Amino acid sequence: MSTECAREHQQRAYASTVRGVQGATADTSVVGPDIDAAGLYVGLTRGRVHNVAIVVAGTDAAARECLAESMQRGTTELTRQDAVRAAPADVRRGP
Fold first, then answer.
1. In contact, 75 and 39? CB cutoff 8 Å
2. Taking a C-beta distance cutoff of 8 angstroms, is the pair 63, 41 a contact?
3. What is the pLDDT of residues 52-91, one digit of tens each?
């Protein structure tokens, strides 16, 4: 891609993990495939203007099924010890 073409068609983009953007707001949020329900919720509530979920599937029906599976996919709840270990990083990250 030429510099001129890139300048005309590309925009700045920033990527982060879903957990890393919890509490943040951006103009646009894009959530990739195979995420769990909590990640899907956090990712799709960060964009002021656009929130997009990417699903890789052969048909619209299969895409809806993949998205429904993501909505039902959970993770193990954190223990109190997990929360205590994670707290210093959360404090350093700030609001």
1. no
2. no
3. 999 999 999 999 999 999 888 876 667 788 878 888 887 8
CB within 8 Å of 59: residues ≥ 6 apart: none
Amino acid at 32: G
CB distance 70 to 34 below 8 Å: yes
Label residues 72-85 b or e (16+ Cβ within 10 Å = b). Answer: eeeeeeeeeeeeee
Distance CA 56, CA 28 (A): 20
CA distance 23 to 16: 13
Sign of the CA dihedral running 12, 63, 33, 86: positive
For the whole model, what pTM was predicted? 0.55
What is the three-class DSSP state of 27?
Answer: strand
Residue ranges per structural domain of the chain: 3-93
**Residue 61: strand, helix, or coil:** helix
